[in-house]
């Protein structure tokens, strides 16, 4: 036992004894006894010898206890405090991880990982690109290096307010979100705990640059894929009424055939209501055959074997009560298999029915999206002329020009190039401005006539309420890149930007 609880135990015991004595002292004196205030006072001899000695001995004992005990108590207090803080932080990180990873369907959490990736390595969010209405995979940045770019207050700001015009939701209760202060702290403590080393952060630059240059080289293929995907979306909308009808019929049948409540399963074993149940799994032989046939037929007509993760081509064997595996690959009782398919059918119907009901307007939207994609393909605004960049800003050095462009695209474009986060088919001229201001037409040279000031700004980022450059007013939104990019690389970006 450590000293703290022992001290408390002693104090409580002494207090309890004191209280008992106090309670007793108020009782009426027993016969023959004289109340202390009526008794004759003790004589001087008695007072100055026995009594005095006793009192002084007690005083000495208590002083000694204070003199030795309290310093010992204080000496251990610091360690106890830091151990407590450590444990507190550990628990906070654990809660933050849960909030980050889990979502409403799996537990209590905000599902950040669904967009930012497991371990916050970066990911994508399904989002409607505003101008075209096309559904895109919007880039969600890695957060395992976010504290190299933003300080804690700045990260908190994005958590509370989200980022308008992007899929990043506002989480703070002050703006109607679900996260209270404690949860925001937990999230940040978790993010803090998974930050990669600075060496690793710096080492990512080469790969990031290569990815961006590859994207430009693969532009044609990227467009072909985007057009195909949009064509599939259009096809799905066109098929929606027919699909809704097939699913609707199946759901009706499913409701009639397999809505046996789970609790009745045991009763059904002896005496299946719908006929002979050879494998005693709660579904009669006839129903098993019927369900198998119906689903097979539906799969043919739908032209697909699965709905989400659930297979709809199931074969229920009347002689085997575990004919199929579920979507997790576990052997599953036939009645449960039938119920799983029914649930998947219902969910799919829920998604398709509204599309079928509003087919005309939704189709018009998707076709406009297709037209926008074709326009973007023809305009080819994403195109990069590395030679021209080299001539303009890098004295003909194509390698430096490519790296400057690649670094800008990987680290800056998501806030300074309109459409970049929605993918190459939506990307317009570099530096056209998005969350961050436009950097085109020599704007950065006006803002930072001195190159070194420009470099300094990229290294440190902006601070809320603090001016920068010629007429800039910081909001703390522009991250600092000094910890994740070498100064050499930052100078390449700066040269590239000054030529935009
Ligand atoms: C629906 C998808 C989605 C969810 C859920 C989501 N985010 Fe985001 N988040 C984004 C996107 C996209 C961005 C980048 C926005 C942009 O394009 O500027 C972003 C930006 C951020 C940023 C700013 C980082 C930077 O470098 O610009 C932080 C911090 C952040 N998110 C934290 C979180 C946390 C913590 C959660 C969970 C509470 C969360 N996000 C949930 C999509 C999401
Ligand atoms: C998360 C979004 C974001 C990213 C990423 C980002 N910026 Fe910014 N940038 C901003 C915002 C917003 C401002 C305006 C300052 C503010 O609001 O605090 C800004 C301002 C600037 C300015 C000043 C422009 C002016 O005329 O006022 C320059 C130059 C700049 N950024 C360059 C860069 C470079 C270079 C990178 C990449 C290394 C980059 N930015 C990455 C958001 C971003």
Give an account of the 3D structure.
The structure is a single chain. The chain has 500 residues and is mostly helical. The protein is built from 19 helices and 8 strands. It folds into 3 domains: 85-144 and 146-195, Orthogonal Bundle (Cytochrome Bc1 Complex, Chain D, domain 2), CATH 1.10.760.10; 226-362, no CATH class; 381-498, Cytochrome c-like domain (Cytochrome Bc1 Complex, Chain D, domain 2). The longest helix is centred in the first third of the chain and has 58 residues, at 44-101. It has a two-stranded antiparallel sheet with strand order 1-2. Strands 3-4 form a two-stranded antiparallel ribbon. Helix content is 59%, strand content 5%. The protein starts with a helix and ends with a helix. The structure holds heme C (2 copies). Residues 411-412, 414-416, 435-437, 439, 443-444, 447, 458, 462, 469, 472, 474-479, 481, 493, 497 line the site of one heme C.
Layout of secondary structure:
Layout: H1 3-25, H2 44-101, H3 112-116, E1 123-128, E2 135-140, H4 146-149, H5 152-161, H6 181-193, H7 198-203, H8 205-217, H9 219-258, H10 265-270, H11 285-302, E3 306-307, E4 310-311, E5 324-325, E6 331-332, H12 334-357, H13 359-379, H14 386-393, H15 398-411, H16 413-416, H17 443-447, H18 451-460, E7 467-468, E8 472-473, H19 487-498
Bound molecules: heme C (2 copies).
């Amino acid at each position: 036992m450590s000293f703290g609880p022992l001290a408390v135990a002693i104090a409580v015991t002494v207090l309890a004894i004191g209280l008992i004595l106090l309670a007793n002292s108020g009782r009426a004196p027993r016969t023959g006894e004289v109340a202390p205030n009526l008794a004759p006072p003790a004589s001087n001899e008695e007072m100055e010898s026995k009594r005095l000695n006793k009192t002084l001995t007690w005083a000495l004992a208590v002083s000694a206890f204070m003199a030795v005990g309290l310093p010992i108590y204080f000496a251990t207090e610091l360690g106890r405090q830091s151990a407590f803080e450590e444990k507190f932080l550990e628990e906070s990180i654990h809660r933050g991880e849960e909030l980050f990873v889990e979502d409403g369907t799996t537990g209590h959490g905000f599902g950040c990982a669904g967009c930012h990736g497991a371990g916050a390595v970066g990911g994508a969010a399904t989002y409607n690109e505003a101008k075209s209405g096309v559904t895109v995979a919007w880039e969600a940045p890695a957060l395992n290096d976010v504290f190299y770019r933003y300080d804690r207050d700045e990260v908190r700001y994005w958590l509370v307010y989200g980022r308008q015009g992007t899929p990043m939701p506002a989480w703070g209760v002050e703006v109607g979100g679900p996260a209270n202060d404690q949860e925001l702290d937990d999230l940040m403590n978790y993010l803090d705990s998974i930050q990669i080393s600075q060496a690793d952060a710096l080492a990512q630059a080469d790969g990031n640059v290569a990815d961006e240059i590859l994207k430009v080289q693969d532009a044609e293929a990227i467009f072909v894929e985007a057009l195909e995907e949009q064509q599939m979306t259009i096809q799905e909308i066109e098929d929606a009424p027919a699909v809704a009808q097939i699913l609707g019929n199946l759901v009706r049948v499913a409701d009639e055939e397999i809505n046996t409540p789970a609790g009745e399963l045991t009763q059904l074993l002896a005496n299946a209501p719908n006929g002979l149940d050879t494998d005693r799994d709660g579904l009669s032989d006839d129903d098993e055959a019927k369900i198998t046939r119906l689903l097979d037929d539906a799969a043919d007509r739908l032209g697909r074997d699965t709905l989400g993760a659930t297979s709809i081509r199931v074969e229920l064997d009347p002689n085997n009560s575990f004919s199929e595996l579920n979507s997790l690959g576990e052997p599953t009782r036939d009645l449960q298999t039938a119920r799983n398919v029914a649930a998947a059918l219902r969910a799919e119907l829920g998604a398709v029915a509204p599309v079928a009901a509003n087919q005309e307007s939704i189709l018009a939207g998707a076709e406009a999206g297709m037209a926008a994609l074709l326009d973007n393909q023809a305009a080819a605004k994403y195109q990069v002329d590395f030679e021209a960049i080299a001539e303009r800003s890098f004295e003909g050095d194509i390698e430096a020009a490519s790296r400057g462009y690649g670094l800008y695209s990987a680290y800056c474009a998501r806030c300074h190039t309109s459409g970049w986060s929605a993918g190459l088919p939506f990307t317009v001229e570099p530096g056209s401005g998005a969350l961050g201001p436009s950097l085109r037409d020599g704007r950065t040279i006006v803002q930072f006539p001195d190159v070194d000031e420009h470099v300094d700004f990229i290294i440190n980022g902006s601070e809320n309420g603090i001016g920068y450059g010629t007429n800039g007013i910081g909001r703390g939104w522009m991250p600092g890149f000094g910890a994740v990019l070498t100064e050499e690389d930052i100078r390449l970006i700066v040269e590239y930007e000054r030529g935009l």
